[in-house]
Amino acid sequence: MTPGHRTEPAEDSRVTRTRADVARTALDVLTREGSDALTHARVAEIAGYSKTTLYTHWPSRFDLIATALDALGEMPHHPRTGDIRADLVGELKTFRQAVLDLRLDRVLTAMAQWATVETMSEIRDAINTNAQRPIRTMLGEFLEGAQLEAAISMLAGVVACPSLMFGTVPDDDVIEAAVDVVLKGAG
Amino acid sequence: MTPGHRTEPAEDSRVTRTRADVARTALDVLTREGSDALTHARVAEIAGYSKTTLYTHWPSRFDLIATALDALGEMPHHPRTGDIRADLVGELKTFRQAVLDLRLDRVLTAMAQWATVETMSEIRDAINTNAQRPIRTMLGEFLEGAQLEAAISMLAGVVACPSLMFGTVPDDDVIEAAVDVVLKGAG
Asked: Which residues in chain B are closer than 8 Å to A153, comparing Cβ atoms?
């Protein structure tokens, strides 16, 4: 049962499929039921594998969470038009939609919760850096230093804070107001 | 072992002390070790009570988390001076200090994680509404509607987002830049 030590292609593809199934199921459990539900027993039950298989490939709960994050893939982003206001508003609305569709709020809290493990804090930093890149690029065209860092956190916060603190997402006019405050206040 | 059904004062004060001990310990475990560590076994071990006592008074993990949040008490706030810029900067620095000292980031993620339970989402909303009140009051003196909601989330975000997304807190100049962006951009 040690994957990678056999040479038959059939075994390799079966292991690959198992890994993909389990990663997908782990992400589903995390986003639908929350990080507390993300256990070997629960993932085994839903994915239809034995707990032994789960423990063989993913010995710890940390491994399960890491594989769930692998399955997350690339964050959706808004295609740029060149109109900075429209692009920032579009990017924040895309972020809002991902909170609703992909339950990014639960992904964020799970990553924060597990970040006491060093490897997880590295995974988290990489995912969040990647997720913020379009906003950083857009704002970086006219801001720098403390103002740039403040503006990035502020625009992330207009979606993330209501979601994490109150389980809600902002209306369009709140997102637009936030973008206008940054464009006027930091211009 | 059913507290409240006996009349001897000695028993009442013992129950009161047990409740306070356990609430304090549960909050310590939550903020020092994270919400995953907040189990009956761990709290019993540290507080020096039996698991039976814990399960009698706090049947579920949800009850343990609720009692930990009770022990949180009032959030620290910055005393107002009347200078809006100084007061907003002071309030955000106090929030930042509470993230460092009280590990409010872990409290926030634990509340978000458990908010699938309705009672917990009510507790979370009450705690976060209360925590944001000074900022809302200050900004409410010159903002309203979507702009007010955006500004509150943006200023909360300048501390909360780096903390939840990257495990860092913003420098003074980033906090000051955020306040200046809001004061100039929404004025």
From this structure: 157-159, 161-162, 170, 174, 178
